Each structure stands twice: as C-alpha cells, then as structure tokens.
Amino acid sequence: MRFLREGQRLNQVEKWKLERHPLDVREAVLEVYSREGVEAIERVPGEHERLKWVGIYPQNQGGNNFMQRIKVPGGRLTPEQAQVIGRIARDFARGPEPNPHFGNNFLDITTRQDIQMHWIQIEEVPEIWRRLEEVGMTTVQACGDSARNVLCCPVSGLDREEAFDAYPAAQAITAYFVGNREYANLPRKFKMSVTGCLEDCAQAEINDIGMLPARLPDGTLGFNVRVGGGLGDGPRMASDIDVFVLPEEAVEIARGIAQLYGELGNRENRWINRLRYLVQELGPEGFREELEKRVGIPLRPAGEDLTRRYRGDHVGVHAQKEDGLYYVGLNVPVGRMSGEQFEEAGRLAGEYGRDIRLATDQNLIITGVPEERLDELLAEPLLRRYSPDPGPFERGVVACTGSEFCRFAIVETKIRALEWAREMDRRFGDEIGQEAVRMHFSGCSASCAQPQIADVGFRGETAKKGDRIVEGVDIGLGGSLGRDAAFIDWVEGSRPAEDVPEALARIFERFKRERRGDERFHEWARRVRNAELRDTLRGTSVPVVGVQKGK
Amino acid sequence: MAGFDIRELMNDIEEAPGKVWFWDLEKAVIDPGRCVQCGACVAACPSDSIGIAEDDLPKLVKMCTGCSLCWDFCPRGGMRHEATWKLTGNNGAAAAANGLGRVHESYTARVKEDIPGVQDGGVVSALLIALLEAGEIDGALVARESAEEPWKGEAFLARTPEEVREAAGSFYNQTLALGHLDLEGYELPPNPRIAVVGTPCEVEGIKAMQARPWKWGSSRVDAVVLTVALLCTKSFNYEKLMLEELRDRRGVDLEEVGRVDVIRGKLIVQDRGGETILEEPIKDFHGAALKGCDECADFLGHAADISVGSVGSADGYSSVLIRTEEGLAAFEHVKDRLELRPLDKPKSLYKLDALDKKVALKSLKRPFDPDAPLFIDYEDHLESYAGTDRAPVDHEAVRY
C-alpha cells in the first residue's frame, strides 16, 4: 500500500509496522513468546503494538496478564463455538483474586459483537487458538490498525421486517480482510457494519463504513453506503456519500474505502487519524471522487433508504420469519458472564434452538426456538439470571471494561453501571414508561461503551471532593441513533461517582413529571435546556421546563 | 487541515463544564511558551499518554483520556503553585510575605572533604552520598551532563555515591525530571525510596501529587521520600543559552567549559583549569530564560523538605533551609560531614525572594494567593489570561 498523504512524518507505530508486518506476530507468539515468556516480547520494540493484530492487549496489571479478544463476525456463533469460548474462559481466564461482583473466569460481550476475556497468559495462547481454530474462529485482527469485527444485525435472516439477509455480505467482507496483508496496515482501526434490517441494528452512523439497506427505483435491493462515523473524543455521524452497491459488491466497496484510507489517511498523528477525520477533510463529495478512482465498479447514486428506526436491542421473545420459531434475547447487564454460563448458553442453543447471536448492546440471543419449547427454555436457570424480561434500566445498561483491566480507563465501570441500573430499576423501573433506558458507561474518552448514543452517557473522569481526587464521571443526556440520531450533550462534568445515583434520581423524577405523552427520555432531554438539566443533576434549582434546546 | 480543532467541526456536542484535554494544556501553557519543563504533566498522566518530545517539551504519545490531571498538576496551568507551600506546613500568608517561610533549621554549609565538581558548598552531593551509604534511599533523581550535548543537563537516577559524584554540579536547563519518575531502566528494589533534587516547580508538583493520591500510571510518585529544592529564580532553554548565546554569539567552546555558575547577578563560565572565560550580567541572558519562570514566586522552594542554593552564603558555601521533619531526619546523616554555621546573609535571601515575587506578581495574570485552593479551573485560567501576552494560543500547533 502506498502512503500518498503529503508532508507527513510517520509516527512511531507506523515505523514499527514497517519494520515487521504486524501479522507476523502470530508466528512469534506460537514459536517464541509462548515458549520463552513475556520477557521475550519486551525485547522486541513495538511488539506490544503488533500483538493487537492477534487480538491481544496488555492489561493494566502488566506482566504476563493479557486480554484476548475473539472475533465473532456479525455476532453469530454456533452452539459448539459458544461452548468452546465458554470453556476457554473457564480454563484460562482466571485472575489471582475474584472480582467482588463477577467472581472469576468470566468473559465480556462487547459492543462490537466480540468476546473478550482477561488474565490470559502468553503461554496459554497457542492452546486457546488451537481450540478456536478447530471450530472455525479467529482472533486475527480483532484489534490493531486494520479491519475489526464486521457488525451485522444480530437477527439477520430471522427478522420478519428485514429487507434482506445481509449476513453473507458481512461474512464475505470478513473473509476478504482477515489475514490480508495488503490491507492489514491501515492508519488506525477500521470499523465496518452491514445490515439489511430496517432498524440500524449494526449502528451504521457510528462506524467507519456503514452499509444500510436501500432500494433502487427498479426494485433492486442493496446497500446505501455511509462513511466516517465514530465516537471517541471526536464523535461524528457518518456521511452519506451517495453510493448504492449490490450485496455482491460489498467487498469491493469496502476494499476500495480501505485502500483510500490506507493511502490518504493520516499516519503522523494517531489521535486524529480515524477514517472520519479523512472524510471531514475531503468532504463527502471529495471522498466519493477519491473512492471512484480506486474501485472496479461504477458508483451508482444512492437508492431509497429503507431504514425506519433504531431498535437498540433484541431483548425478549420474538417471532422469527419462519412460522413457529422464535428468538429469545437474554439481557446480560454490562455484557459480563462466567465462562460456565456462556457454555450453558451454547448448550441451551443446541438443545432448544439453532444458534447464539451477540448484539451491540452486549446482550445475547438464542435463535430458532420452536414455540412448543419456549416455556421450557424460559424456565432454565440461566434465563432467570439473564432475563428476557428485565427492568428498563438493567436492559439498557452498557459498560466498557473499565479500570479493572484497561490501561486507559480512569474509573471502574462494570460494577458501578450495574449497581446504578439496578438502583434506578428499584426506584423508577415501573414508572419510567419505556422498555429500556440506555445508560452507557465508558471509563474514559475512548467511548468503548458508546456513551454518546445513550439516553444517559457516562464518561470516566477525575473529580475533586474536598482535598481528595476521586473517581468521577462526565454525564451526558439525550443521545440516540435512528431517524432522530443525535449525540448527547455532556451536560455535567466531573461529578464524583458516589453522587451519581442521586443525580440520576433527580433527573428521572423530573422526566416523569414533565414527560409529554409517549415522549421518550432522549426526546425530553433534548427539549430541556442543558443549563436546567445541569441544575437538576446538581440539585441546585427548582426545575423549570424549557421550550427549546439551548447551550 | 491539521490539528485537534478538526474535532470541533465534526459535531455540535456541548462539552462538559470544566473538561480539559492535553491539547488544552498545549494551547494554554506549551504553545505560548509558558511551560517550565518540570515534567509534572508527564508524571501525573495515569495512562502514560504524555511523553517528552525532541524539543524537550511534553507531547502526547498515546490517547488522551480526558482525565484533566495534566492540567491539574501543571504549575503554569491548573496547579496554583503557591498553594503547595502549605503542604509542608507553611503558613500561606507568612510564606507570601518576605521571609524564608517555614524553616526548622538554617545553615551556611560546606563539605569538610572536597567533592570534585560540586557547585557551591557541595551540600547536596554530600547529603545524597550520606543517605545512600546509610541505606536511607535507593537512588536520587538528579541532573547530569548529557552524553551527546555538552553542558546540557539530563535527568539521571544516581544509585551509588560514585554516580552522585559523577553528577555533581549544576546545569541551567530543565530536565523534565518528573517525566523520569517511572524510574524505567534502573534496577531498584521492589519498593524503592527516592530523593529528588530539582527546581522548586518540580518539588511543588511532587508534593501536590503526594497530597492528592491517585494512580499515576508508571510514575513512582509514592517512591519519593525526600525533596531537595535548588534555589531558583529562572531556568533556561538549553539551545538559547548554551548554543545561541554562549557558543554562537560569544564564541565559547563548550567542550572546554569546566564550570557554569550564576552568582551575584552574573553568569560566570570557567574553563577546565578554573580560569574565567566569561562573566556577564545575567540580565543579558534573560531572552534565553523560560518565559514561564517569570510567573513563579517560589525562589525559596517552600514546598521542599530542604532548600539549597548559593544565595545568602559566602562563595564556596551553600545556604541550607531545612523545612520539614523528613528534611531534618535526612540532614542528620550528613551533618558530621559538613562545616556548619548560621546563615551568612539571610537578607540576601529576603532581597532576592522579594525581587522574584515582584516579577512573579507582575507576570502572573491571576491573583496570587497561597491560601486559595490548590486547583484552578481551566475556565478561571482563561478568564485571567485571555487577552494578555500570556493568553492561550488560538492557532492549532501540531507537534506530532
């Protein structure tokens, strides 16, 4: 791949990637590091960076403690694959001390339909890979500056309303990029999403590439292409580049965009070099022009956009396309389960249904359950623990890894988010008037928990309390995807974490009082002026209903 | 288009009140030339996202997580430097007035047994050697001459008396000492005890961080058991002072220089034989000083355990101000190796302190108040500094 951006000096990571291809790290893990230990990794400059290409990150505990991410394209797992993953967590994800809430040997479902587990030691990795590869799974490019897991609507192929099943396109894109050395060195991570559903379940607006269902005037179905979405500390809604592609052209368009990004993306400053910055620089039209030079297909103008709404989750019992079959969405608060429980989910999918699907809200779905077996499945102990009928706050809670393991997170997230959700369910669950209230907690500005698209977003921060620095959060309100997609405003900054439940209670009390008809929380939060919301969070004023959004 | 401002074009999100990122620190402190290169931001960053650039200024090396701590502990940013003086038991108001601040004991001192290369009385070198020999510390973060650039000080952890001797003497550039508190590359016992010898601003940063415990990434703030502040009215930019002013403008061959000193208002450069090759009023070199040093009112190192410098004592002697219990305990180890007497000329200290404060009060664009809270919000800083000659820059400087 040529680097065509003018006048840039390569940053250190770029130099490391050129010194040795990052995909070569797989061999090094198998042949050297797993035998000689972590010291051997330390001896190779840039190797911690390259390890990301096989889905391995160092934990903040350092030493021989790693996070291993497993790619699950489109979030789809066979019962056998799910059981293998569960067993891996059971056998290897063991910390020296149990987490006070989640115990030990757990795994996390991520907002990219991946699986992560912690406390992996480098010498265990070959065996983990062997087990995964045996059932057709990989950790290659789960992380690093390359194509990450391709998102797809978790109920693709099952949804009665969907325009078409986009999973084959997601699979084909995955197959093209995994292990592809030419496209495995992009300026930064590269996130793609594909869906044929009408509910933006693959979150096209916040991915580098979003392919959404569309129809040409002659009835031909395919995708409209959006580019340059993302969150982090530079959130941007994806741009419509006025391109329609057929499902069989999805790989070529993804390849062309990857080539464009690889050639023109910023390889100097890693903090402003995701694809969205390039789209911002070129503009949607300029981007389309550059893309046209690089693809072997004509770029047709966009078709009719078929997306109708944003659904956000698949919790509950839902009828599938096929008569008599149902999928059951289990609520896995903050995405964390024990390996044993995940294995059990795989067993249940095998016994009662067809497969397991992972969703971007960190939940899990068992598909293909015949109507006559539903009650039996619903009576299983696992479904009492991870209910398909949770309270609205537990249903909507999402949290990143947090400071328990992540080297960037400023605060603990998982336990806090779960406790806050449970407390809000106790206090407001029956009165809040919507199925899910989405509270997303990211431990830092990286937005791994997608706080900007939540009803209530938390971003880890430090806070001052008397003479102490304490764990705190910025609080944002009013985000959503879908027809009225908009990011939250960060209404309040640096609130000590221990003050958050009461601040939330004041906000939800006020929402209950002021809600108009079926108004949803994010709609109300956008209607009320930020200054007033801030006062309510702080408990410093008598609420006054604002009439329009104000800064 | 380049630079972090591109983010603001991509959405209309209202940012959280008080949110500060590293690039805000860049705009307010680094880009306007106010950085004093103490390294506090590097030390404070819990994700080790701040490193040291080739221009000897802090730079982002990993993702900024928006934790605000680099701002909070910057003595030209969010840390009210004079509010750190209370941390060592100073009465803020008294320290703000002319005087030495809180001092348990004060001396004019010199080593009994000469240590080659020491700056004045050799007190700091002798103290560190004594502490290392007694097993009281495992290392001392000091400045030593760079192997590549003559007369440029670089941070170095001396772990043996011999290494202390090798590093004897002063340099007049900042080393971003706190940026080296990760102690990386040095073999040390599991829970090392470290002394830090540095400028008052470096000591302020350490004391402030120790008073507000947090997870400092790889920085071993907890390992610092003793701080020694070198009396300081200003530090210099190495390139400007040593290369431009001395080497290029005045023809000084830096390879031949044996000693550089600032004493009685003069910069004195001697060759290896001790002959003076340059003696000139220090004010002639003010253009090479760090602009941010003007805003510092802490010539005397009020936050330190011990303050040491040449002012206030006869030539060849050091003035020693012991400010804390830790300082007293440490000094006990070296007392018998020193000639000690009451301070020769305390009035010289008062006088220079008064002058230093006068410059600081003129340069500072915010109220000077040792009794005020330690942290200054970014918005409050903007309110004080906007429209001044020290205002945050609004251009987007990209140093990556």
From TrEMBL, chain A:
What Gene3D superfamilies is this protein classified in? 3.90.480.20, Sulfite Reductase Hemoprotein, domain 1
* Superkingdom, natural source: Bacteria
**Keyword field:** 4Fe-4S, Heme, Iron, Iron-sulfur, Metal-binding, Oxidoreductase, Thioether bond
| Coiled-coil region(s) | none
The record lists the catalysed reaction(s) as:
hydrogen sulfide + 6 oxidized [2Fe-2S]-[ferredoxin] + 3 H2O = sulfite + 6 reduced [2Fe-2S]-[ferredoxin] + 7 H(+)
Q: Known EC number(s)?
A: 1.8.7.1
Residue ranges of domain Nitrite/sulphite reductase 4Fe-4S in the record: 143-298, 395-535
Q: GO molecular-function annotation terms? A: 4 iron, 4 sulfur cluster binding; heme binding; metal ion binding; sulfite reductase (ferredoxin) activity
Indicate the secretion signal residues: none
Q: Which PROSITE patterns match?
A: NIR_SIR (PS00365)
Q: Which residues form the Nitrite/Sulfite reductase ferredoxin-like domain?
A: 57-135, 318-381
Check the record and name the Pfam families matching this protein. Answer: NIR_SIR, NIR_SIR_ferr
Task: Identify the PANTHER family for this entry.
Answer: FERREDOXIN--NITRITE REDUCTASE, CHLOROPLASTIC
Q: What does this protein do?
A: Catalyzes the reduction of sulfite to sulfide, a step in the biosynthesis of sulfur-containing amino acids and cofactors.
Family of this protein: Belongs to the nitrite and sulfite reductase 4Fe-4S domain family.
Q: What is this protein called?
A: assimilatory sulfite reductase (ferredoxin)
Identify the species of origin: Rubrobacter xylanophilus
UniProtKB/TrEMBL annotation, chain B:
Domain 4Fe-4S ferredoxin-type, chain residue ranges per copy = 26-55, 56-84
- List the transmembrane segments: none
Which keywords does UniProt give here? Iron, Iron-sulfur, Metal-binding
Q: Is Iron-sulfur among the key words of this record?
A: yes
GO MF annotation, one: metal ion binding
- The keyword Iron-sulfur is annotated on this UniProt entry: yes
Entry protein name? 4Fe-4S ferredoxin-type domain-containing protein
